[in-house]
Amino acid sequence: MPDRSVVASSSVMWRLAFAGSAILSAVVLFAPSDGGASGIFPGADKVGHATLFALVAVTGALAGLPVRETTAALLGYAVGSEVAQALLLPRRAGDPRDVVADLTGVAIGLLVVRALARRSSGALPAAAATHERPLPEGNGLPS
User: Nearest-CA neighbor of 59 among 21, 27, 25?
Assistant: First the structure.
């Protein structure tokens, strides 16, 4: 069993990583855009959306946030961010395909977390084990 001080400091680290990724997502999704990233290669914007949401999903799970609730919140955030871009932000445009990319990123992130849990014998890595318990079956992660 890992030293409680190591687990506690790792838990704080993952919570900070989650907070940082959530802030980064807000900046990327709501800052005025000139379409810069979308011209790098075809589909770059969608890859960026998926990567951003995968990062938030992974860091949220490793921070010890409940997977189902975090997934539901990210679903709402994906839809809400596009509605806000379409209706409230003059230099942004909402795109339903971005929601699909966002949710694809969440799914990829959850698959990464599941792989980490399986690799460490059903428990989240010690660095993320905020309550030092194994990841139970039926936890909301994709099979």
Answer: 21
List, as own/partner pairs, every contact residues 98-102 make where C-beta atoms lie below 8 angstroms and the sequence separation is at least 24, other chains included.
98/45, 98/46, 98/49, 100/46, 101/45, 101/46, 101/47, 101/49, 101/50, 101/53, 102/49, 102/50, 102/52, 102/53, 102/74, 102/77, 102/78
Residue at 53: amino acid letter: F
Q: Contact at 8 Å (CB) between 112 and 94?
A: no
5-18 CB burial, b ≥16 within 10 A, e <16: eebeebbeebbebb
Q: Which two three-digit tokens encode residue 128?
A: 């993320």
CA-based R_g, the chain, Å: 16
| Burial label, 88 (beta-carbon count in 10 A; 0-12, 13-18, 19+) | exposed
Instruction: Give the C-alpha separation, 88 to 35, whole Å.
Output: 17
pLDDT tens per residue, range 2-56: 555 544 567 899 999 999 999 999 999 998 876 656 668 888 889 999 999 999 9
Whose CA is closest to 123, among 113, 138, 133? 133
